[in-house]
């Protein structure tokens, strides 16, 4: 839910709503805004501790006296951490009865309520049946493709009318390019959690019931109406009585468990029908429904959401430009979540962001880098990153909100995705197709050979631009069309992260029509390829740098240029893993390639220096040296000489990139020199020296005999 924090510029009144009170109202005039009275401290809510503490003076007691309260604040110290854990345990105890998805319990509950089931069934069948009839008519008339956009809009409106379960279902379908055509993906992605608010009195009663204390003992003030409403709950802005901390209070919608439970009971019955009678659908529909239902039920447990937020904060808020609000466990339960209030502007409100002196593109880049870390480093990521859940703070930080729906990327898939990008850059479509096994897109018994031509047809056209110039949405749409035509089963983690990056690129395009998310992502991929010691990524790097037995220096230079744009790039991290791989007992094939390239580079330095020296001597002396050779002092063509000099200059540039990287220190070469003292390294050096000697001897023989300038490859 994106409404935990909205634009800071929005006016807000902190007060109690008219006519609401947890106790009988006192006599006197009715007031639209009442200051909440102080109540005695409840030990279950706040605990008095010696230190550190914040002393709050309160003169609003019934006796009119001066009362002081000590409120423990979590600062990250040992004792504070213990208190925080204890508070979390108490919150877990309050959420002990939180609902968990159980198909068996749904059958028991609703199997004995036929009237309720029939009434809801008629409403759903009427809405979706009319939509299905329109699709059938479109197909009979041959206009189904022309009407895709129109029908997609209608389906989005139907899901909104049918309520929370179908809003969530539509949002889930919007991330599945293997299930829905592109037009439906776009429309369903616009589904907003904007449902009518429920009465404030019910919300406040829920807070008191869940936390076990009167509302006025928790908050000194609370907004008179919700700041935002969503499918599962609504959010208020409040001020904690005993610390003055401004917080967002998320309260669950009454009866939501009943509503979604009945809907999933019916949808699951439909899944059984599809599995049994619809042969076209090969996926286990009931299993998909159960997985989706489990995720939605997890969102109903706000303590779980608080734990998700804490885990996300620990993993990703170490970067100074990322903000994750903290959780107040003593004011949190299964149906009430109290978290730090974030002042900020939604990421899609460009003008408001710029008025604060911030740049949308800087924030989007922060979001992209954080999304890549979520997907490819730790594998734990935010599964609902729409613009309402991303805020720009006045300090220029990107704040993440709403941690009800999270997902994880399997470790194997994290490395396979980076390898997939390498295969795309190399236009190795057979390898790309085989990647889909590791990514769990295809079962092992599926033949990928028919998929290769489809990938080639799409990517050959898309890659006419460099990878960094590709529009990510175009790439995702094109790939989605391929996935839709073949028996792919796109895992939830992959579909969700594609949606995340597509959303970020869409936000950036408002500020810069030429923005490309792949260009912003490439430095991260380059850094990981150059520095990560994982064997899979080492192989991917070799595959990227070597082709047909030759080293592609331009690729290495490009990787270093892009990798150096990542603030965490280190030349030390880039050098040592490669050397270890080179000296690995199983690295003989790579060593042979490297020896050949080392010989070629040394030859380029020696002969390039000779050519430069020749170019600096006086012309009358050149005539004596060349002895009638029109191409200069060496028996080489002009093109070969230029190639030698270009290679030498490129290697010098690459060394310059390493030296200018952040934290470069010549002392970091000491461990590398130690590695080179190993027997394998000494043997490698001897082979390089032997190769250089052989090449120079061949050059000398050419020079003496003046044979045509071709040098046989070294037989190493």
TrEMBL record:
Family matches, as SUPFAM superfamilies: Protein kinase-like (PK-like) (SSF56112)
Pfam families, per database record: ABC1
One example GO MF annotation: ATP binding
Domain Protein kinase: 221-551
Origin: domain of life: Eukaryota
PANTHER family referenced in this protein's UniProt entry, alphabetically: CHAPERONE-ACTIVITY OF BC1 COMPLEX CABC1 -RELATED (PTHR10566), PROTEIN ACTIVITY OF BC1 COMPLEX KINASE 3, CHLOROPLASTIC (PTHR10566:SF120)
Family that this chain belongs to: Belongs to the protein kinase superfamily. ADCK protein kinase family.
Protein's UniProt name: Protein kinase domain-containing protein
